[in-house]
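[Automated response] Your request has been received and processed.

Submitted sequence:
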Amino acid sequence: MQLGGPPWEAEMWKTAIPLMAAAMVLGDAAFAQEKSDALERYPARPIRLIVPFPPGGGTDTLSRLVGKGLGERLGQSIVIDNRPGAGTTIGATLAARSEPNGYTLYMGTSALMVAPAFYPEFTIDPARDYSPITLVSTTPSVLAVHPSVAATSVSQLVALAKSQPGRLAFASAGNGTASHLAGALLQTMTGAKLVHVPYKGSGPAVTDLIAGQVQLFFDSMVTLMPHVRGGRIRALAVTSAQRSPAAPELPTVAESGLPGFQISPWSGLMGPARMPGALVERLNREVVAIVHGAAFRDTLARQGSIPVGNSPAEFTAFIASELAKWGSLARSSGARAD
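Generated structure:
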């Protein structure tokens, strides 16, 4: 470095440069120490858990169960923040753009995997803009109909729909959700013509199914089976590859005349991208302990869900595979945002 000016100025720079470098080192050390202290104090205030559906649906129920257990283990309140709409992209965008400090978490679902194909304005990359923590559970969906529908099997429902093109309406929890793709796939595989009615979550969709405003709905066992057992709606089949131990009397859609029909929605805990690795590992340990707990597993088993609780690396790999799978399903089914 060439220093001009009088000799005293050169001497000043010779002294100042090492001091500036030392200050930068001390500043970096202080910042690192501050981050370390913040991790040790975590959580120092309530944690927000964004749920991209309204209250009352399967994802909301699961999130509250996880939030209760996590709050007890961390000694802080977990505040459920329901942000429904636009195929979960409202909640997903809010979560991705939050500070990666562990005070905003997100219950992601398989709907997030479809969002890029459905919403061109959705600029969030599910593989890049989140810190995966753990896959919480997978849940077989149930195909249920209103009691007024003259069908007690999938084959009868398909025959009825084909005899009355455009007369039967299927509800979904929103554009791009698993319930939307299931209905679209049913039409693609059978040639039946149904009317898609999207809602802002499972709760309002179930309400209208019970009221007969829509005729059929694919949704989680958690949401639908209590109403099936109460006689308010009729279950025809499950969408998983095998029958569910929670309702072994229900056949799969595949064995009901549509081989290859399989959809298993899932829910997993995430944070914004660039969360500190130590924080991700801490949250993973806590949530996995909850998921593997006997009480949690028993609750999910009664609801027909399958607890998972894997590592951040395993969940990251799972998301990559799901992006390819659900994107392909969205394209092959011909489903579009209505």
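Summary generated for your ticket: Residues 7-41 form the longest helix (35 residues). The chain has a mean pLDDT of 90.
If you did not submit this request, please reply to this message.
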